[in-house]
Write a structure and sequence with these properties.
The chain is 46% helix and 10% strand. It is mostly helical. The chain has a three-stranded mixed beta sheet. Strands 8-10-9 form a three-stranded antiparallel beta sheet. The protein has a two-stranded antiparallel ribbon with strand order 4-5. A hairpin with a 5-residue loop joins β11 and β12.
Length: 346
């Protein structure tokens, strides 16, 4: 009996599949089927990923635009991932898509009115229509790449968003009001410090868009705050060797044993307090010296200069030591407004 249940579970397919979910597929019930078909009825008339899912579903089940989706029987292999089902039946997402389509349908009428106005005026041949502003906040990596490909194919320029944070930056002014920070455009054709910082950090997602390309022609944009934070590893580089190569040999052995081997290669997460204790042990073994007076902050700054890819995260506790780690490519940890941290796809 258990083998039959597992075989049935294996045959289920997610009819609203739209994410890389690894969770088990749940069978469709009457309640979830009713809500799913109601959303299919609306999504089939809209554009985008969920519109394609709805139209493919109707095509595979013999339906069309006039078919009453609620009358369709529940398929034997019907199922869904919990995350996919929530995304497909999200009412707010569905309403936004409907409003977008309505606004897009109104555009031809607006263009006709503009053409009538332009016919009575002298229009310069070299003038260009104003570019529509794109406002996006915290894009995932796949969504951002799709947006960039669509924009490049039509205008040969990147979308008007920050290439670093992919969203909006706000700063509190003198009047106490949060104001949106303006975007600055790259003035160096090869990317300048931005390209150097991306190469040091081995940021393949950013290198894909700016390496060996004309950043001025593509109109690469960024917030000044995002640019300053991202290029710190370049601006703080010192051309001359450090004046005080204290514990030079010990630091080299320490880095090979713990930083390179455990953190970078094995992707382990270690506390700064543990690294300081291990560093003191290595100094006693290699240099036969006592490094107890060597500050943990000095060791941290030394690690930052040697390994720009290292990340340091301060936990919520005041007297808790920092975590030291290396993030997998394409991920970043951002602070939440309500407190804590969240993982974001770049």
């Amino acid at each position: 009996m258990a083998e039959k249940d597992s075989e049935k579970q294996f045959k289920l397919r997610c009819y609203a599949h739209s994410s890389d979910s690894n969770e088990a597929i749940k069978p469709i019930t009457e309640t979830t089927w009713t809500k799913f078909t109601q959303c299919v009825q609306t999504w089939q008339k809209l554009d985008g990923k969920f519109g394609e899912i709805a139209r493919c579903f109707l095509q595979n089940h013999g339906g069309d635009d006039d078919t009453d989706c609620a009358a369709l029987p529940i398929p034997n292999d019907g199922g869904f991932h919990r995350k996919c089902y929530q995304l497909f039946t999200d009412i707010s997402k569905l309403q936004r898509a409907v409003r977008t389509k309505e606004n897009r349908d109104k555009e031809p009428a607006k263009l006709e009115a503009k053409d009538l106005m332009k016919s009575s005026c002298i229009v310069k041949k070299d003038s260009e229509p104003p570019r529509k502003k794109v406002r996006m906040i915290h894009h995932s990596s796949s969504t951002l790449n799709m947006l960039i490909e669509e924009t490049l194919s039509s205008t040969h320029t990147l979308p008007r968003i920050c290439i670093l944070c992919h969203g909006n930056q706000y700063r509190r002014g003198c009047d106490g009001i949060n104001k949106q920070q303006p975007l600055s455009q790259c003035t160096s054709t090869d990317g300048g410090k931005l390209l150097k910082a991306a190469q040091l950090k081995k940021d393949e997602n950013l290198l894909l868009h700016i390496e060996n390309k004309d950043c001025v022609a593509m109109q690469v944009r960024y917030h000044s705050v995002c640019y300053g934070n991202y290029t710190k590893c370049v601006t703080k580089q010192v051309s001359k060797p450090p004046r005080d190569p204290l514990y030079f040999q010990s630091f080299k052995v320490f880095c090979e044993k713990y930083i390179v081997s455990q953190i970078i290669n094995d992707k382990q997460v270690l506390r700064m307090s543990k690294l300081k204790r291990e560093f003191d042990k290595v100094v006693r073994e290699v240099d036969d010296d006592d490094s107890s007076t060597y500050r943990a902050s000095s060791l941290k700054n030394r690690l930052k200069k040697t390994f720009p890819e290292l990340c340091f995260m301060k936990p919520k506790g005041v007297y808790t030591s920092e975590f030291v780690y290396v993030l997998p490519k394409g991920l970043e940890i951002l602070p939440c407004t309500e407190g804590g941290w969240k993982i974001n796809m770049r």
